[in-house]
Amino acid sequence: MKEPIKLLVVQALPDEYTPTPLPGATVEHVYTGVGKVNATFRLTEAIYRVHPDVVLNVGTAGTTKHRLGDIVLCTQFIDRDMRVLADFGVTWQLNTGESLKAFPWKWNLPTDGCCNTGDSFVTDASGVEGDVVDMEAFAQAQVCMELNIPFMAIKYVTDLIGQNSVKHWEDKLADARRDLETFFVTQIG
């Protein structure tokens, strides 16, 4: 009998909790808190406790390219705070596309989404790169790459950058939980 995959699901806040009943997996959830420092610390702590085979970030995001309610699978990550230091050799882009081979499920989504991470809630659309924006995924991707653990993120679009406010994100959390749960139950093969 094949051993189940140890899946660590990472979310910033308990308000973003989504059941992830993936076949053939034992699932453990961890909440990191908001921001890259919290994400780095709490994810690293959880990795050493759980020893996962793969790590999946599931959460909410803003966008300039998609519609409210869209679900985006991300394997590319940008750190918008560190981008200005690119000339000094600072890593500000990561690609975890090779990780997809370690996730045995069919996601029924494009797998090349780009998540733009920074330590601020983005309200101005000018200069925003990527498909979605959040405050944790780049840091989580970097931790996983350093520890050689496959990583990707699934993001639910709760707000349109430049058109909605933090209040709109709060209002869409219930929709995000419901629609992500439906996605995991009905779309994953």
Structure description:
This protein has 189 residues and is an alpha/beta fold. The chain has one domain: Nucleoside phosphorylase domain (Rossmann fold, 3-Layer(aba) Sandwich), CATH 3.40.50. The protein contains three helices and eight strands, in the order ββαβββββαβα. It is globular, with a radius of gyration of 15 Å. The mean pLDDT is 91.
Write the layout of secondary structure elements.
Blueprint lengths: L4 E7 L13 E7 L4 H15 L3 E10 L7 E9 L13 E3 L17 E5 L14 E3 L2 H10 L4 E10 L5 H21 L3
Parallel strand pairs: 1-2, 1-3, 3-8, 4-6, 6-7
Antiparallel strand pairs: 3-7, 4-5, 4-8
Helix pairs in contact: 1-2
Query: What name is given to the CATH topology?
Result: Rossmann fold
Strand arrangement in the largest pleated sheet:
3-7-6-4-8
Residues in β-strands, percent: 25-35%
Order of SSEs: EEHEEEEEHEH
Q: What's the main sheet like?
A: 5 strands, mixed, barrel
Question: How would you classify the helix and strand content by structural class?
Answer: alpha/beta
Just give the CATH class: Alpha Beta
CATH architecture assignment name: 3-Layer(aba) Sandwich
CATH superfamily membership: Nucleoside phosphorylase domain
Total individual domains: 1
- Give a count of the beta strands, DSSP E runs of length 2 or more: 8
Brief synopsis:
By secondary structure, the chain is α/β, with parallel strands linked by helices.
Keyphrases for this structure?
189 residues; alpha/beta; Rossmann fold; five-stranded mixed beta barrel; 3 helices; globular
